[in-house]
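Q: Two folds, back to back.
A: First:
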Amino acid sequence: MVRVKENLIENKKSPHQEGLHSAERVVSKHFSDMFNAYSKAINKAYNRTGSLFESPFKRLIVEDSAYFSRLVWYIHYNPQKHGFVKDFKDYPYSSYYSHISNKPTRLQREELLTWFGDANEYKYFHQLQHSENEFDKYIIEFD
């Protein structure tokens, strides 16, 4: 999940900021640059060529507070869902422990924990049994 700065969107809503300069295009361009840089680094590290991603980038705007809360859980739960680990808390690449840690991070930890109340409420929310069916309407599948 990525949060786009509101001032970026507001500044790009001008009628002069359309087409290639629209807010949506600027955000997509930043993601494209990031994915391309990542692909180049992986290709160089593993002496390979070609694309790492099969399909074009897709996204959904999160505008519902309940969906936001469950999406945080779903992102952490995903490695468990797909069988990488038995418990999502054991997945080494998760942001879950970064959120509840006191170590320095570039993540917006305090803002996220405050959303849930505090670190204890955040942990409690992750312990609840959520239904994957809550996400069916939000899942983006590629044909």
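A: Second:
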Amino acid sequence: MSEAILHVLGALALELTPGSAAARDALPQREAGELGAAIARDLARFAPDAATLDLTTAGAHYDPVELLRPGWPIHRELDQLGARAPGGRGEGSGRIIAFGSHENRLPGALSPSPDYAGGPLRLVPWSLAGDAGVARAVGEACERDLMESGMAGADTALLAQEAFGLQVEHARHLTLHDLCALMAMQYDHAGLAPLWPVLETALLSPDREAWLDAPPEPLLRYADREARIALLTPGAWRGRNAEPGDANGGGSDADDERLQRGFAHYEARQRQFAAVLRAHGVPVTFAHCQGDPASEL
């Protein structure tokens, strides 16, 4: 696309009632277009200049881990497909480009993964694109106020609920940065706060390096767009997580049992961190460390 084009990336976030299950995760073209038009109306009410930008969306809903991946692949796919859509932008108004399913299949790589179905928060992605100056101003307004003021219209929420067969408690629009902040809070509540800075680096600054080096948590290094997790022997783990008295072996059966439980928890934590990173599209390698693990990752 032209260098004068700028994108604003976000999603319609559907918070579901507990136990709600979707009747379908993708809409045929007509219904996708209706939902796209409703999203465009919401965004134009929030920021009137949004109506001058092209809105591209998918008639589908996704788990947050599918949208929050390095390079924003779902949004990138939307933008690439939207750039090839026929027709030009109207004078003073943007197009609404909504991708629906044909014979139960969405175009390109837009199909939601069944591996992440059933979560309590489902996201309908959207992208605004157009004149860089206008898009920048709309984007700044969205980043500043959308989290607090971006409640979806009642018609939009009802349309999404009926079209997907969901039970929606709340529907609001969020930017991808808002979604990152929301996920950080959710991971904090789930006991995954130590991992978030690494994941945030992978999402927002993928070419930078980040470490998780905070015993008793697993030792992890993110670099070159992948995460490497140190595999330690029980002895190396004990040395890294030693408590007073452990250096001499402790000696009691109770000490040995405590250390065995601690090492088992460490290995389970490694698997948990690896699963979360992979769900977010971050490659993970387990590295067998013989000496100093920090220097071997």
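Q: And?
A: The chain is about 40% helix and 20% strand.
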